[in-house]
Amino acid sequence: MIFQTKLKRLAAFTLVPALAAGFAIGAPAIAQSASTLSSVQSHLKATSSMTADFVQTDRNGQRLSGKLTLKRPGKIRFQYQKDVPLLIVGDGSRLTMIDYQVRQVQSWPVKNSPLGALLDPERDLSKYAKVIPTGSDEVLSVEVKDPKRPEYGTITMVFIRDGSAPAGLRLRGWVALDSQNNRTRIDLSNQKFNVAVADSAFKWTDPRPRKKV
User: Rounded to two decimals, what is the model's pTM?
Assistant: First the structure.
């Protein structure tokens, strides 16, 4: 049981480097991808909030599940299953990972995260993303990376055409790859768009011992 718990915590940790890696604007998308990128940009702008169930799979096949809550601009929460004492929260300015078991907190600016492409609908995708062919007109794939800074990693978002979703697209998930080739896949289901989400959803309790004054 202890070994299984450690594996689950390690699997959750694999998401953090990919999300918290620095990100800078890189190469422009090719011209023929402009229409697809415009569609994705329209979806992002039309989606003010989203909730979904997620399944996270690391490169070893270890799977974790949980609840994703997103509110633009900049807010996101990964609430893991009950036996994983980790929480990842973006509060609009910083992306924070809280490990309640060891009482540790790590934090990075949201704007320096690859997730900035997902959380900030005002970012111009044409300046730092490119379309990846999928072989299907119903599936769109957009890769975000800076080729000049490979240490920042890559995030590839996948969208499904869905007439009932904002701008006709539904975020299916993404794959994150860090500079050490640690691959983390997020699959989403039960997506609900533009639902009421309170800002309190992006608050968290600090587990670190308080310093005596």
Answer: 0.82
Please provide the DSSP assignment of the chain as one string. Answer: -HHHHHHHHHHHHTHHHHHHS-----PPPPGGGHHHHHHHHHHHHH-SEEEEEEEEE-TT--EEEEEEEEETTTEEEEEE-TT--EEEEEESSEEEEEETTTTEEEEEEGGGSTTHHHH-TTS-GGGTEEE---S-TTEEEEEEE-TT-GGG-EEEEEEEE-TTSGGGEEEEEEEEE-TT--EEEEEEEEEEES----GGGG-----SPPPP-
Lowest mean pLDDT among 6-15, 75-84, 182-191: 6-15
- What distance in Å separates the CA atoms of residue 45 and residue 123, rounded to the nearest whole number? 10
pLDDT single digits (tens) 77-127: 999 999 899 999 999 888 899 999 999 999 887 766 667 777 877 777 777
Q: Which two tokens stand for residue 132?
A: 């990846």
% of the chain exceeding 70 in pLDDT = 77
